[in-house]
Design a protein that fits this description.
- This protein has 519 residues and is an alpha+beta fold.
- It has 3 domains: 168 residues, 3-Layer(bba) Sandwich (FAD/NAD(P)-binding domain); 180 residues, D-Amino Acid Oxidase, Chain A, domain 2, CATH 3.30.9.10; 99 residues, Helicase, Ruva Protein, domain 3, CATH 1.10.8.870.
- It is 35% helix and 23% strand.
- It contains 17 helices and 18 strands.
- Strands 3, 4, 5, 6, 11, 12, 13, 14, 15 and 16 form a 10-stranded mixed sheet that branches.
- It is globular and about 70 Å long.
Length: 519
């Protein structure tokens, strides 16, 4: 997957079937869906794939336990079904994750236990593990960091886990393999109209400044928290439909939460659940739900959110996590669809919403990573209707995502590349220097940087350290230390000069400082 090769198609194709604006979970899912059905598909992303919300999740493929408590049975059933499909279609990026829910009274144990048994039953044939009640002794065996005082026992249940940015990238590769075209750093600045109908877009390659007029039969707006920006390009009288909500996560070493079991705290100060989840040999703790007035591609955690997580997680963990223990902090925005009269974003629906404007622009927003495939299908089906395209059956329910392999060796540091892992190892064999680690605290090697440039459309140091490998999200200090080596490797591979390297390091330093928790 090479950007230079893909971008030439803009000069040769006179008209596309479907143009998708937005390279996050839903947009890339729609690109994979439409391409695999045989439609001429083009996706345009203004920054990098999964730059925004789609790389900042809690890394869970789940039905949503709290949605069950809210009575949103439809969303839970749909998400549990999609969870099962994703675990089958991307085994190299997903795994079954056991969870412990500690209880500090007998009624809590039974209340949550019954709820989680229902949650398990709702997954039907796609169940991934049987929910069980556990004694306090067994809870401590599984999660020794849990506070013992007053512990009544708890519940063991199962959900899914994944690497969000890697899945986004693999969806892009899946779309390209099916004949689609996906381009990062391509900003749509207007919707193209014919007789009042949306028939393409105007876009600029932000790396070169070249502008394009691109024709299509249908246009899908899948821009998440930036949905309203595209709606207003289409019709400047459009009212805002998205209410962004911020969620943050803290990342700490596994010594603070040892073992392979994740933990769910069933109720926090604001009524949300809180998770502590092992991920890439660290532990992610989150999340929050804070309304924000304006969407940003680089949201920053608020002090109140940070204190909220410390306050709630340390009630349950004896390890006593402090600010100095945090390796990275990251924030993401949810594209919640406004509900009439509802101001509390924690209570807003997480279902997706689709609208078709008078110009036939198809807009899909809301939802969650777990249900990306279903959202993509709905978006493409609507695009076929407005574009008067021949109807073809969706195949993504059983479509193997790029990298799929039958047997996944989770002990291999490169396992999440799936079938690409062997080619990365071959790069390291061809050039022994590329087999060196980027940082002594992480297994990432230099060959992964070369692979990212050659095959994964990485254009900046941030692309590599934030999304092709996940070091920025795991340890911001380590990422800063690795950045010079990454910039040098990229410059050599891309034919860039010393000035480019320095600009990249300057930009990345400013970015990474936002992932450090000041004392």
């Amino acid at each position: 997957m090479q950007r230079g090769e893909l971008i030439t198609r803009l000069d040769t194709e006179t008209e596309w079937d479907i143009i998708i604006i937005g390279g996050g979970a839903t947009g890339l899912g729609a690109a994979a869906d439409a391409s695999s059905r045989g439609y001429k598909t083009l996706l345009l992303e203004r920054f990098d794939f999964a730059k925004g919300t789609s790389s900042r999740a809690t890394k869970l493929v789940h039905g949503g336990v709290r949605y069950l408590a809210q009575g949103n049975i439809k969303l839970v059933m749909e998400a549990l079904h999609e969870r099962g499909l994703l675990l089958k279609n991307a085994p190299h990026l997903t795994r079954i994750q056991p969870f412990i829910l500690p209880a500090y009274s007998w009624w809590q144990k039974w209340y949550y236990g019954i709820g989680l048994k229902i949650y398990d039953l709702m997954s039907g044939k796609l169940s991934i593990g049987k929910t069980r009640m556990l004694s306090s002794k067994t809870i401590l065996q599984y999660s020794p960091a849990v506070v013992q005082t007053g512990l009544s026992g708890g519940i063991l249940y199962y959900d899914g886990q994944f690497d969000d940015a890697r899945l986004a990238l693999n969806l892009a590769q899946t779309a390209v393999e099916a004949g689609g075209t996906v381009l990062n750093y391509m900003e749509v600045f207007d919707v193209r109209k014919e007789n009042g109908k949306s028939k393409g877009v105007y876009a600029e390659d932000t790396l070169t400044g070249k502008e394009y007029e691109i024709k299509s039969k249908a246009v899908i707006n899948a821009t998440g928290v930036f949905t309203d920006d595209v709606l207003q390009m289409d019709d400047d009288m459009q009212h805002n439909m998205v209410s962004p909500s911020q969620g943050i996560h803290l990342v700490v070493d596994k010594k603070f939460f040892p073992g392979d079991y994740a933990m769910m705290i069933p109720k926090t100060d604001d009524g949300r659940v809180l998770f502590a989840v092992p991920w890439h040999n660290k532990v992610i703790i989150g999340t929050t739900d804070t309304p924000v007035a304006e969407a940003s591609f680089e949201p920053r955690p608020l002090e109140a959110e940070i204190e909220f997580i410390f306050r709630n997680v340390n009630r349950y963990l004896s390890s006593g996590i402090t600010r100095t223990d945090v390796k990275a902090v990251f924030a993401g925005l949810r594209p919640l669809v406004k509900a009439p009269g509802q101001k509390n974003t924690a209570l807003m629906p997480r279902d997706h919403t689709i609208i078709v404007s008078q110009s036939n622009l198809v807009t899909i927003t809301g939802g969650k990573w777990t249900t990306y495939r279903k959202m993509a299908k709905v978006a493409v089906d609507n695009a076929l209707f407005v574009g008067k395209l021949e109807r073809r059956r969706c195949v993504t329910g059983s479509l193997h995502i790029h990298g799929w392999c039958k047997a996944v060796n989770n002990a291999d540091p490169l396992h999440y590349y799936g079938t690409d892992a062997e080619e990365i190892k071959q790069l390291a064999e061809q050039n022994t220097a590329w087999g060196e680690q980027l940082h002594n605290a992480f297994p990432y090697i230099k060959a992964q940087v070369i692979w990212a440039v050659r095959n994964e459309m990485a254009m900046t140091v941030e692309d590599v350290l934030a999304r092709r490998i996940r070091m920025l999200f795991l340890d911001a200090h380590a990422a800063l230390q690795a950045a010079p080596a990454v910039a040098k490797l990229m410059a050599e591979e891309m034919g860039r000069d010393e000035a480019w390297q320095q600009d990249q390091l300057k930009d990345f330093t400013v970015l990474a400082e936002g992932y450090l928790l000041t004392i």
